[in-house]
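In this section we walk through a basic example: taking a raw amino acid sequence and producing a predicted 3D structure, encoded as discrete structure tokens. The instruction is simple. Fold the sequence below.
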Amino acid sequence: MADAQVCKVKDGDDTFVPIPSMEEASLKIFQSQVLLPFTLANGSTHAFLGPFMGQNKKKFGNTLSPEDASSLPFIHSSEIDLSLFNDTTKIFRAFPPLKDRHLQWLLCVEQAMSSSWVEAGIFEFIQLAKFDLHLFDPQMLLSSIFFWNRETRAFEFPCGFVCPTLLDIAAITSLTPIGDRFHPDAVEEEISMKEVSITWDKKTYLAFINAHVPKYYYVLAQALHLKKKICLSKLLLASLHTCLDEASESLFRESGPRNLSGPLQLLQLWLNAILERKLSLSSSFTPTCELEGARLTTLTPRKRLVDNFSKYIDAILSFNQFSEDLAPFIRTSLIGPPWLRRRNQVWNMTPDSVETWFGFLSWDVIMSGMRQKDVRIYPYQPQLFARQFGLCQMKSLLLRRRESIDADICVKRGDYEEVLEFILRPDKQLHLVPCSFSPSFLVSRCFLHWWCEYYVDKIIDFDAFLKKLINSPLFL
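The resulting token sequence is shown next.
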């Protein structure tokens, strides 16, 4: 695609890029490509995140748009129960603080297992346990959940959909997007705890296991000990989706949310990253390990004030335009492991990072749940969040049949392969070809038209939100 023009909406400030017409041969190629480069009339080159599935000029509907009003973000509710703010600490399950005894135990285990952790790709991830992950800001977490859409599995900001991606997970935790899906039947053989080649101190290790780790996590521990190539980043992201779905749904219940659990630490660190500059979050952190997540732990606000909630809502509602704040992990100064550092920009992709970037950018299915009855299946749809990678945003279309993907799927019989075979159609093979271009947050005209039509009756500013709060009853 060449000689595209950046246009401005009449009587508005929004800009867009019309997608040039393509010959039939080019259209077929672009239907299987992850990156779709194009050149502007001024000679600059950018790229859309594909594949290109066609942008209907007459029908601006989108099969990804929420069809069930009950799944819309809580921020659009006509009333908000003010008792939610009585004691937000009860909404989220408390995380145990880091204690010297636990840290000593971790360092002891690290001496024996560090080489195995490096081989499994989890060494840096485990280092996060040495930092203040127990600290969280309940007002910040709650304010973000107000914007979660349970049908699109995305935060609905004024500028569009945003959500942690596998690139964000990698930057925060150092977990790669490569590996096998984990499910409760992933390990056929079992290992006795006594067979592990570490002498455990019963007063530290076993006490910790019995007090904090449910037994059903042992299946995952076995898989890692057996050096199975488990993709923990997709498991973690799917678990976050489950957590956010449950949290959002609980806001609509009369009893409200209580003791919410899940990888809320990950949500806190991601919010710290996208709000760092807008809220002037600062830290005197001196890196002791090359991990962005470690730095982000120090940005969590320590003062838990009720007034902070309105400040966070105002900050989110101020994202009228997509900015680099919402793409914090594509900067050149990113702290991270060697496999990601200086390779976190898709426009500078190296041959040895193609597989990793394919994992970041291609459509997939992710699964959560340690027990068979808890299994949930979600679509990973990076096309919804193209701008978070520095890519231009097209109107996203469903790459798989809606009826084939359901977050409420529980695989009762444990036949996961059959379910995945039904969802993942092999005829939709994608290809990632590295190319050079400049990052951009431009959107296509079809996307801008669709988003405006979708969001026009949902627009809410901070003053309107405060008015809604004032007029809402207090349920005791």
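Looking at the output, two observations stand out. Residues 66-97+132-186+228-386+400-433 form one domain. Residues 255 and 475 are 10 Å apart (CA to CA). In the next section we compare this with other chains.
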